[in-house]
Fold each of these.
Amino acid sequence: MIRRDYDVVVVGSGAGGGTVAQELAPLVKDGVRVLVLEQGPRLADAEFTGRELEMADALYEDGGAFLTSDGAMTLAFGRALGGSTVVYTGTSLVAPERVIRGWAVPGLEHADVARRSAKFAAQNDVHLLEPDLINDNNRLFVEGCRAAGLAAEQFPLNVKGCKGSSLCNLGCPNAAKMGTARVQLPAAQSAGVQIVTRAEVLSIRDHALSVVVRAGREGEKGAPSEWEPGQYEVRARVVVVAGGAVGSPALLLRSGFGSRLPALGAGFTCHPAHILVAEHERPITNDVGHPKSYYLDRAAAEGYVLETCMYFPFTTAKNLTGFGPAHGALMRAFPRLQMILVLACDKAVPGNRVGVDRAGKPVVHYRFTPQTVEALVRATRTSAKIFFAAGALRVHAPSADPPLIERRDAGRVDALVAARHFRTGKVSVSAAHLMGGCAMGSVGEVARSVTDAWGRVHGVPWLRVADASLFPDSLEINPYLTIMALADRVAEGIRSEARDLLGAGDVRS
Amino acid sequence: MHDSVIPTVRPLFRALATTFVPEAASLDERGWAEAEQIVAEFLAGRPAGVRRQLTLLLRLLDFLPLLRWGRRFRSLDAAHREQFLAAMQDAPLLLLRRGVWGVRTLAFMAYYARPAAAAAIGYRADPRGWEAPGRAAPGPATPRRVAGS
Ligand SMILES: Cc1cc2nc3c(=O)[nH]c(=O)nc-3n(C[C@H](O)[C@H](O)[C@H](O)COP(=O)(O)OP(=O)(O)OC[C@H]3O[C@@H](n4cnc5c(N)ncnc54)[C@H](O)[C@@H]3O)c2cc1C
């Protein structure tokens, strides 16, 4: 066992961890030693090939095949330097005022979240894609919405020099996406923050982290770890847990914090999503151009959001319902396919939670509530209408039986798409916006929350949480900017308490 | 790559895969080898328990048709295979539905993750994006800035 000493250790390097690393970096010049431990690898630019399985295997937890405990939903989340921001699509939205108000976390104001989100939007080069870079898949969504009497909105995106590879979810092959591995982590590193990859934190006990550093498998992508493979004990005065909505609660549960924090792991939510596909008569540009430039926000009114999207052959095949000749015919229509991702705004409910198995591995227990299923069904009906209004010949809707709806039946969409056809285990549902598990709440209120509004774990002053697990309920929009805003608060809290926590000066830059 | 699943159930796996993806019937031995290698690599990264469960599930799917048609899955004709798997994906037991979903996913992975299949369906995504040959070049870039709204 090799021992290392630091002042602050950040676990995880995604939207939360990468932000904390950057925002704590000013402390380094005062002699504070800051370390980021990331279990995933650091990939070189040339290793982003855009090849589907190869990149999924390199960048996602479980190669992208992580399932909820009953096997009914796939959860997609990153495992690499930069976390899920390596594979996210870069849509950059500020949390809705009504959602932050609804969370009712004492000390958390929407204006503060919005101000900090704007700071990171500017840092990440967030802008609207110019009209001549919008492909047909996105254009048809806007036109379909307009024809159906709905107002699509354009997504602000955090890309710089986007070439339109459409491969965002396999990691940008052109280094154009401004995730934490491109922006915040390099800034932190050049200010003296140390980053160690392939370093998994197994448990945390009383200022000590048990860490295993692994060598890569033969032929695996990514640089070797910055540390020699082996077992480490890393001691820290402050530990910031930012392993994501699955990783953070799982780490704290296997570290034994569950007994003093009964809310740990509870309140998991995730925007369950279907990929819907429609076939047009003629080829459209779909697998070139940024895949996600527009959305339709029906969260407040109807509990769902529609987003443009475009996926890869295997992902598309897997997400269509059914099999056989009809499935194959749709796959062969690939150059003519338009796609919409429908996301339901599920609520945190008892029973949906993160736990750990006997080996300490995360297990996510999740059941679809009738409200979530209804939201998916309403979203599917609206999408089908948008597809047909955009001129589609047929629409593939998972909660219709049979799933293919022909144009002659466009007027019967409301009857054909129904909750009774949503059969768990048969329809493909996936989620990439994972939230909750270490909910923020009132100071010391252990029955219902894990931290206060600054990510301070109740009763454990040296332990902080700074990622999507802080969300006390669904955000109802794409979450990364809000995660960065919350992580920024956590870092500010540590800086302002630096004298007590670290014996360093009060640094509020 | 060591694979403890496919070699033990190869004919059955191929019978299932061609039912899920009829196009797979036209694969030659090299095509099958490539498809099975993809699955083998994926399974090699999964825990041993998952591989054991999968082998059991595949055998179950082979034997279940005996109850209805007196024949194993492998011995059914194409129409009955399709009918059986369609019934299984609607089975009252979630365990069976998700089991079929899982095998279906492996079949799609085997077939569609091959570059030849991607090309055959007309998938053309290229890291060079708009700059790839045959893609319309976009106009000059003048990004509009917004403050994270
Ligand atoms: C495919 C996809 C597309 C998305 N698109 C968008 C989008 O367009 N817009 C948007 O706003 N959001 C998007 N998201 C969601 C967004 O990326 C995530 O919400 C966000 O990155 C979560 O931040 P996080 O810090 O909570 O976790 P992550 O970013 O997932 O980072 C957690 C990191 O911690 C590491 N870790 C976990 N446990 C340990 C441990 N014990 N030891 C060491 N390291 C550990 C993990 O390996 C991981 O790298 C997308 C997500 C995915 C998967």
Amino acid sequence: MSAIVVALLGFVVFFLGYRYYAKFIAEKIYKLDPNYVTPAHQYNDGVDFVPTNKFVLWGHHFTSVAGAAPILGPAIALYWGWLPAFLWVILGTVFAAGVHDFGTLVLSVRHKGQSVGTIADRLIGRSGKLLFLFIILILVLMVNAVFAWVIANLFISFPSSVFPVLLQIPLAIMIGYMVYKRKTKMLVPSLVVLAIMYIAAIASAQFEFLQIDLVKYMGGEEGDGLFGLGAVSTAFFIWIVFLMIYSYFASTLPVWKLLQPRDFINSHQLVVGLTILYLGLFFTNPELTAPVVNENPDRSWLPLLFITVACGAISGFHGLVSSGTSAKQLDKETDARFVGYFGAVGEGLLALISILTVATFFANTDAFFSTYASYNDANASGLNTFVEGASVLAGGIGIPSTVAVTIVSIIVVSFAATTLDTSVRLMRYIISELGTEYKIPTLSKTHVATSIAVLSSAALVLLPEGPRGFGSGGYLIWPLFGTSNQLLAGISLMLISIWLKRLGRNYAFTLIPMIFLIFMTMYAMFEQVFFQWAAWGTNTNMLLFVLGAIIFVFALWIAMTAFRMLTKKYDDPIDQNKAM
Amino acid sequence: MIDKLKKLIAFYEEVLSLPHRTEIARELREEEDVFLLLLFSEMVGIPNPTYYYTLELYPYMIEKFHDWHLRMGMEKSPLSGIRCC
């Protein structure tokens, strides 16, 4: 089957979803009011609360939520065949992610621009807030540990990408200085840096001396490394230490010095990446060689599919962005549909191209099964397959394959590094907040909180032996990522449902995806915690068992709270113009 | 055509600069807050030998002070020395 047909089908469903379903939700359920004074106007302070053009806000929202996760999840979920992954991405985006992202935006706008965490604090008490902090803490710890491994892995697998990525750091600092101190515009300098990076990519793809290949320096894969480790393990060790030191600086320096300029160089890469891949797809018209459905999987798609494709369909992190920054900048309440729902559609498009890239990469179905032989194999090779598949599509518009591999790996590294920077910074904030909450002021200090964040992530990466060898310790708790992320989305949907109920509106449209998500999360957790990781399970793992059991109890508690709050009789519907 | 292209570029640049502008504005605001504290430190009990001179800036700072206490969630001025509202 032609991949173009599948892509077009996806576009049509996304279009119909936005045109009709989102319109229905906006008018009948959320009842957006063009005359409502949004927090951006009410509290306009020129900094956080600023009324912003809806197209600009959409661009910002989309670049904030799009990262490496919507690429990674679908690339792995292809293990069950392209159809299940495609259907969940399409339907999940239209019926769950769109409603969720859009809903958290509206909920926050109607609550003075507060974040979902604060709203949870008000709706379900202080324990709700601590639950949020705990889940986010686990999430960011996992993200730090795993993304450090992902970047190190890409550096080792595609050594030509190292030089351009390293080059970006001093150039970004230079741009930050120019924009902040000299007040120059940022578009042209950041495009120049991007061009320099790509020229460096072309050069390092051609000339071997520009490739920083640590494994080769130590005598190849069989060579000896440091501290009695092999060459590959030593390379992992060096890159991970480098990344952790980098994260420390990136998260403590003022953001305009490194993070912001790096982000705005990287935000072009999203446009470049999506354009190259979709153009490549339409020029080469490849056939889908991955099976429609994998008939003999070693792990059932139910419920794992919904946990594996995390950010591609619905993600709790989107709710944090929606209610954290976007809600404070919404000019008119009616813009929420475009920003929130269409933002989710943008993410869906990224997940869709990830599916099509991997599904068209293999010469035939047998070749697919030799790489995707088991669920664990799919997990291990999903990202690298995406990079190579993307280089084939890029070849369709005339980019030579070696250069394309380098450019695509730079794009993926950049996405992963942006996520890593943000997530270390986020972890620092959470540790500080916990310090304030539990009256341990030392924890609130920048360098103390950052040291804890970086050292705990580094310890998780390096100390235990992970499933993918040395340096992959983060993968030990990675199975919890999908579930905790979906759980976060479930809590947000629950908050929206409770709010809608109290307004006396029909809340079925948020309740159904909420039940679906919480059910799938609990199903997956129950199966993994009690049948796999437990002492009597098939794959005993005490660390996962304990953490998984804690998250499972939280999920159960949320489900019970939701049931209690949603079955409670509210005699007096609240005034929708009055914040709760 | 060129106009449309220019509009598109302007839009793209605005998307790019939105988070950056926020961040710069926040840093500037923090600097302003520290400056404000230096000027009016005497009013919150921190001795300031140059208070006599900084007080002369009072009429120029009053609007900014008003914005500050609103931003901090206080409807009325918290300092009896400054009655801005």
